[in-house]
Structure to design on (164 residues):
């Protein structure tokens, strides 16, 4: 099977270096960015502005080669973890997923807030966050991840996942 994905837009953010940027949207709550869509996709943005938040699915275009074991930014024990139990960019397909606040849609440009994404990142898809679909009810477990919300908000990236 051959899968071919094509970027539909480019994320324009204030982060030009992978080191010392927030590791999750929670650490970038007030950071604004724009997504510039190829004009052929403008029609697909109709009605998106009725949603408060969106999922961004993007390609980590500056990440190192994939690894099956990594030490995540939030693991203070420095224990190697299976890549599929982490949010690191070193997954086999190097896909990123973020939930961000939707500020506005103007023609082929979407403005978002809460951005922890490198400038120039290719966007593969955007989907609305719908609470009745997406909110998890009942007990939620976070596995090995013990960092508090405050620790996640204050954590910055280092060079461990940056391509040489």
């Amino acid at each position: 099977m051959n899968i071919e994905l094509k970027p539909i837009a480019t994320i324009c953010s204030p982060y030009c270096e992978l080191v010392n940027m927030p590791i999750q949207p929670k650490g970038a709550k007030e950071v604004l960015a724009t997504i510039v869509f190829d004009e052929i996709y403008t029609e697909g943005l109709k009605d998106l502005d009725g949603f408060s938040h969106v999922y961004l699915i993007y390609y980590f275009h500056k990440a190192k080669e994939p690894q099956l074991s990594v030490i995540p930014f939030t693991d203070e024990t420095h224990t190697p973890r299976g890549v599929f139990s982490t949010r690191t960019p070193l997954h086999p397909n190097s896909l990123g997923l973020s939930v961000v606040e939707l500020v506005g849609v103007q023609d082929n440009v979407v403005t978002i807030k809460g951005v922890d994404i490198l400038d120039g990142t290719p966007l593969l898809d955007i989907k609305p966050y719908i609470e009745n679909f997406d909110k998890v009810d009942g007990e939620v477990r976070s596995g090995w991840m013990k960092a508090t919300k405050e620790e996640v908000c204050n954590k910055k990236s280092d060079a461990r996942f940056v391509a040489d």
Summary: Residues 149-154 form the longest helix (6 residues). The chain has one domain: 9-128+141-159. DSSP finds two helices and eight strands in the chain. The domain at 9-128+141-159 is CATH 2.40.30.70 (Elongation Factor Tu (Ef-tu); domain 3).
